[in-house]
UniProtKB/TrEMBL annotation:
One of its GO terms (biological process) is cell wall organization. Keywords: Cell cycle, Cell division, Cell shape, Cell wall biogenesis/degradation, Cytoplasm, Peptidoglycan synthesis, Transferase. This is UDP-N-acetylglucosamine 1-carboxyvinyltransferase. The lineage of its organism: Bacteria, Bacillati, Actinomycetota, Actinomycetes, Propionibacteriales. It catalyses: phosphoenolpyruvate + UDP-N-acetyl-alpha-D-glucosamine = UDP-N-acetyl-3-O-(1-carboxyvinyl)-alpha-D-glucosamine + phosphate. One of its GO terms (molecular function) is DNA binding. Its EC number is 2.5.1.7. InterPro entries: Cro/C1-type_HTH (IPR001387), Enolpyruvate_Tfrase_dom (IPR001986), Enolpyruvate_Tfrase_sf (IPR036968), Lambda_DNA-bd_dom_sf (IPR010982), MurA_subfamily (IPR050068), RNA3'P_cycl/enolpyr_Trfase_a/b (IPR013792). Belongs to the EPSP synthase family. MurA subfamily. It is found in: Cytoplasm. Residues 13-67 form the HTH cro/C1-type domain. GO terms for cellular component: cytoplasm.
Amino acid sequence: MTDDYLSRIGNLIRDARKHRGWTQAQLAEVLGTSQSAVNRIEKGHQNLTLEMLARIGEALDSEIVSLGGGPVHLRVAGGRQLSGAIDVKSSKNAGVALLCASLLNKGRTTLRKVARIEEVNRLLEVLNSIGVKTTWLNDAGDLEIVPPEHLNLAGMDAEAARRTRSIIMFLGPLLHREDTFQLPYAGGCDLGTRTVEPHMSALRPFGLDIKATGGEYHAMVNRAVTPGKPIVLTERGDTVTENAIMAAARYDGVTVIRNASSNYMVQDLCFYLDLLGVKIDGVGSTTLTVHGKADIDVDVDYAPSEDPIEAMSLLTAAIVTGSEITIRRAPVEFLEIELALLEEMGLDYSRSEEYLAENGRTRLVDLTTKPSQLHAPIDKIHPMPFPGLNIDNLPFFAVIAATATGQTLIHDWVYENRAIYLTDLNKLGGRVKLLDPHRVMVEGPTHFSGAEIMCPPALRPAVVTLIAMMAAKGTSVLRSVYVINRGYEDLATRLNSLGAQIETFRDI
């Protein structure tokens, strides 16, 4: 490797380490080397083997090196207005939940229009490694899933499993199939320490006991233990609720789940289970009554609904660039608070009459944005469980607030360090002040200007940065965008179809 390449690789490793919040010593410990060796690597003074680069990339969950020639970056020519119409793709979070839920069914599951994103790819790698046959049926994203009679959990692709937080949702389905099993620690976005204890408390009533050692969850199931009373979730989390529902689906009895999430991906899971013959009362509320079946063997065909977070991403891109576009197939019941808040801030838009998604349940509309002069809201912006403002939609209000006149306080109480990444907007000319790990004050309006930025390791702040670059004067570069590809299918290409100018490239 030339000195120039070593220096550039070292800079990428340093930036990825800092975004993960690690010291050189912490990275060294994971790699089994010294802090001084990591220091030399980051300064470009250390020759590197491909094996070491791969190990560093795995440790930092970053595409430091790949067979394609290095991490993927985006070059954005900003300041362009968007125009045209675009369809919202199916829900990422529903898709991954349904992939996990397919393990409940001995029969064939066909899912329609599944988003071809990295998070789905990682789960498919895990499923294939344990013997599940998965087949993409066509270019529309229809996916067929056929489980084996017996899962080969010993053959699980641990590397793929560690790169997705969704692996935690294997606990609910597997506890009915195996008396003992192991799962690698869940990975995914770097959003701080999110305990798995809420999952454990939701699943203990079904006899599941977990010991976390050696980088794995060691699970044991006591078949004599069954839910004797309603399960009260200590956290109204989406994945926690999904795990509890999936555990209850194969329990031969009735399970009541209180303080359940009623968010979009939970509802899609319930609609899918209904096709499997699992009756669930209270869908859309915080109390679910699940009438489980000990044995499920059904061939089913299900279309998950559209993604409200992607709809919000497209809406934000239109607002920030002052554009008129039509966003078709937006799941309005999961955007109503966001739209009400945007109306309060001065957004001018129109919406079509409601119609149903392909699942026959979820309400959709077409939204057409108008260029608008926004002002800061009177109160702070904060998320709440559905039907409140969606936790994943909160970061988009940072870049929206940056274009509005006045000061906006954004309170991200769920994650202890996601708000920190919103300060990357300052590198583009924003005025975002970090008040504490949960709160930022955004001052607007902002005249964004181009810059080169390392992609934040959290999905939504990464897209927020990209959208700000689309509004910025001049050219920007967003480096190492694997995290965006975890949650969005061909986002740059789809934004380009509306008139954006985003180029994908590699430089190593």
